[in-house]
Amino acid sequence: MFDFKVSNHAHYDDACRKFALTHNMEDVAQQAGLRAQTLCTKLNPNQPHQLTVQEVLVLTDVTEDATLIDGLLAQIQCLPCVPINEVANDKLPLYVMKATAEVGQLAAGAISNEQMNASCKRGLLQNVNSGIRCLTLAALPVQARIQSNPALSSTVDAISGLGASFCAV
């Protein structure tokens, strides 16, 4: 059904490095029930020990930071995760504005003439991931509104059908 392909780029290794630099390892390790040195070793791509799936899940839950999961998804060439438990209808304008801001920062980085270093690359990828998350979080309440209104849902279906028929001609 899906044709996953493992990327030859070190997305997961980069995510581990970023996660380690972003968080206080002592605090995170304590909250996750790990020793700080063990956590640091497992986040270091140059060490043979790696995080287990359960540890990635616990670290993501404890920190509410999807960096590790996004790195895993990028490694198999998938889009970033979207925590749908964050969806709130009253936050729709916030999601749209944040997505717009992320796209703006991405555009600014894309036209920049400066040398692209690893930190800049990580920042741009963070803008992309955050923008995708916000757009998806904005789309979910819109879709729910459309589906909760039968007349609007029928209209959208009819317009979609018309658009498909024009494309077929």
Distance between the termini: 29 Å
Number of strands: 0
Whole-angstrom Rg: 20 Å
Question: Helix coverage percent of residues?
Answer: 55-70%
Counted up, domains total 2
* Bulk shape: globular
Structural class comes to mainly alpha
Low-confidence runs:
none
Features:
single chain; 169 residues; mainly alpha; 434 Repressor (Amino-terminal Domain); 8 helices
Please, could you describe this protein's structure?
Pfam families: Phage_CP76. This is Phage regulatory CII family protein. With 169 residues, the protein is mainly α. It folds into two domains: 11-75, 434 Repressor (Amino-terminal Domain) (Orthogonal Bundle), CATH 1.10.260; 84-168. The chain is 70% helix and 0% strand. The chain has eight helices and no strands. It has helices spanning 11-22, 25-32, 36-43, 53-63, 67-75, 92-111, 118-148, 150-168. Helix 2 crosses helix 3. The longest helix is centred in the last third of the chain and has 31 residues, at 118-148. The chain starts with 10 loop residues before the first helix and ends with a helix. The model has no long low-confidence stretch (mean pLDDT 85).
Structure described in brief:
The chain is mostly helical and 169 residues long.
